[in-house]
Amino acid sequence: MAFANSHRNLQKITYTGICLAISLAALAGCNRDPQVRKAKAFDRGNAYFKAGQYREAAIEYANAIQIDPRYTDAHFQLAQTFLKESQFNSAYVELQRTVDLAPDNKKAQLDLAALLVAGGKPTDARDHAEAVLKIDPQNAEAQVILSSTYAADDLPRAVAEAKKAVEMDPQRSDSYMALAMLQERNKEVAAAEQNFQKAISLNPKSAGPVVALGRFYVAQNRPLDAEHQFKTAMALAPLDPTYVGTLASFYVSQNKPEQAEQVLQKAKADMSDNPAAYRMLGDFYLSRGQTDKASAEFSSLYSEHPKDPAVAKAYAQVLILQNKLDDADKVTGSVLKSAPKDTDALVLHGQILNKENKSQDAVNLLAGVVKDAPDSAMAHYQLGIAYAGLANWGQAEAEWRAAGRLRPNTVEPQRALAALAERQNNNDLLTDASEALIRIEPNAPDGYLFHARALFSKGDTAGAEKDIRKAIEVAPNNSAGYLLLAELRTHQNKPDEAQKLYEQALAANPNDNTALAGLVGADLQRKDIAKALSRVQAQIAREPNNSGLYTLLGQLELRNQDSAKSEAALEKAIELDKNNVNAFMLLANVQVSKGSVPQAIENYQKALQANPKDVRLYVSLGGLYETQNQWQQAEDQYKKALQIQPDYPVAANNLAYLMLTHNENPNVAFSLAQTARKGLPNLPNSADTLGYAYYNTGVYAAAADLFKEAIKADPKNATYHYHLGMAFEKQANYPEAKKQLEQTLAINPNYSQAGEIRKMLAESHN
Q: For residue 193, what are the contacts with CB-CB under 8 A and spacing of at least 6?
């Protein structure tokens, strides 16, 4: 019996095992079924999306798409997560894929149209709005978007189209809002106000239309009415920080920062558990440049909310601004410890590396960030700074352009591009960047000043002056506008007006050494060096640790023919600031003038230890070696400069000429000469070097043309005439060759090749 019972138990176990095996097999089959797997990934994505965990949602939607690339719903939902994360380029790609797969997805078409309008592509947006209207002719949302596509170039048509949206759905508040905004732009003020009020009446519990009316009143210079609307919006949504921010921003615009601060302090107290609310006060201090207050605020918040990564990152940013890099790195590290792939924290770490001049480390880090988060404008911007630290200007420009495309309303990339354009004498880039700055910040001086420089370089002094005066108008207490206008007056040979402008600049900013240098220049024009020295010495008494002032003093003492005092002043400048490259270079010049060339070389070597990335030092040291006939050492310095900045034209020009003179690789020399000519198109020296390169490769006609161009710019240069004479001689144009060789000796009878020239001329007479 015992055996029988055991057999029955075995039979039961075996049967159960079979059932379990069947169940597991079925489960495994389900797990292998792509339809089931993609549905589960999609459902997980929806759960994350509903919980506001958009990055996690994006991963699940992407998993579903990987299983089924034509999974329309997953593409659409992935686009929605990208919109939530403000990753607009990625959202555009997914929305485009959605409408390709499902043209009748009205929401996708409308989202895509809205992105295209925001991106400045109204014609493309119109196509998508019209596609929806073809499916649904009474779709008021599509009609509103259609109206917005005409706003840039046909405002009356835009208003007419918006009125159609109102007719389609007279109870839709948003349509009246859109119509009112277009009417405001079309200067239909009374109608706009009426439609804003209609939008509010249709949706009386919504704060959005109320804020829109408030902004309308701001534009109409009705601040009391505007303030009432913004307060009403706060009352309608007392726990929404957005409307607190709107009222605070209004007070700032009305030059009432104290009231703004009070509003934000109250919001912090009332919404102490809302991260967006309790961070606003610190952001306010930061936006106003009150770094100490911002630091204290975020330090307190960091202690109170140690698990809020946004607080930690904001605090780290403030610490970076205060140059407390070690503390900033600790705070950033705390974020990365719990979230190693946090894009913002990684960018902050890259920013710290940039500040520490660890450019290569910053490139290594930020290149990976950009790869993983291509829509991060700040990552591209900081990567551009890192490339600039390596003097890789092409890559720096590319990254800053990418940042500008991703965030068209951010000033930092455009300001970086403008500064780069000035460095490279690229007027087209300078014009584009300055116009972008003016568009983004029409009440800031920077854009107008950059634009003025672009016009000045093109010879449009009237246009430049107009821009400068606009810069002064928007920022009368900023010295930069007066300085640039003074520079313009100096160019126009109006020294008295220039001096008054320098005085205005110094009055606006008593510590502006550029303004002081301008006044010193005016003193020197009047040959009043005593007055110039007195100005600088008085300023040094006020700022005894200012390296730039000692540099200026050194220049003046040199001009006053007191090399000992000049040398002492420049040594003091270097002692105060080892990165003052101008002081190092001026000191070397003083030492050379005294005949102390070894001392000057040693000075350059010290300068390079402190400033190993400054190409000017290598080029100047190379030139010094040339004066000592140490051409191989000179070549080494020029090569080092080009390793740092491959397109640096002065180094390329000098190295090319040395290589040609010493019969080194003519093809390499020719390429270097082309680089120099491209970078210095108006310099006769670069024309001569490229001509000499053509000469050495046997292209004598092209060489002669370039030598002629050099002579036209500098007719008293004996070398240019000698080179042209040699080119004519190679072309068998002996009369012209003789003429140029005789001119060489007439300019400089002791020219280095004088013996050879006289021999050639003697032979030509025989």
A: 180, 213, 216
Lookup: tokens for 127: 């196509």
DSSP string covering 484-526:
HHHHHHHHTT-HHHHHHHHHHHHHH-TT-HHHHHHHHHHHHHT
- 217: tokens are 């009143």
Q: Long-range contacts made by residues 214-218, C-beta under 8 angstroms, separation at least 24? A: 214/246, 214/250, 216/180, 216/184, 216/192, 218/250, 218/253
Nearest to 457 by CA among 418, 499, 511, 496: 418
* CA gap 673, 686 in Å, rounded: 7
Residues of the chain with pLDDT under 70: 1-32, 765-766
Region label for 527, one of left (φ > 0), alpha (ψ between -120 and 50) or beta (otherwise): left
Residues 607, 640: contact at Cβ < 8 Å?
A: no
Q: How far apart are the first and last CA of the chain?
A: 141
Residue 2 is predicted with a pLDDT of 36
Helix (H, G, I), strand (E, B) or coil at 71: coil
In 3D, which of 75, 17, 66, 64 has the Cα closest to residue 42? Answer: 64
Distance of alpha carbon 151 from alpha carbon 158, whole angstroms: 5
For 559, phi then psi, to 5°, come to -65, -30
Phi first, then psi: what are they for 369, rounded to 5°? Answer: -65, -45
pLDDT for 644 equals 85
Within 51-135, where are the H helices?
54-67, 72-84, 88-101, 106-118, 122-135
Residues in contact with 316: Cβ distance below 8 Å, sequence separation at least 6, in sequence order: 328, 331, 332, 335, 345, 348
Letter string b/e over residues 574-583, b meaning 16 or more CB atoms within 10 A of that residue's CB: bebbeebbbb
Cβ atoms of 74 and 61 within 8 Å: the answer is yes
DSSP structure string for 299-320: HHHHHH-TT-HHHHHHHHHHHH
pLDDT on residue 5: 38
What gap in Å lies between CA 685 and CA 217, rounded to an integer?
62
Exposed / middle / buried, residue 85 (Cβ in 10 Å: 0-12, 13-18, 19+): middle
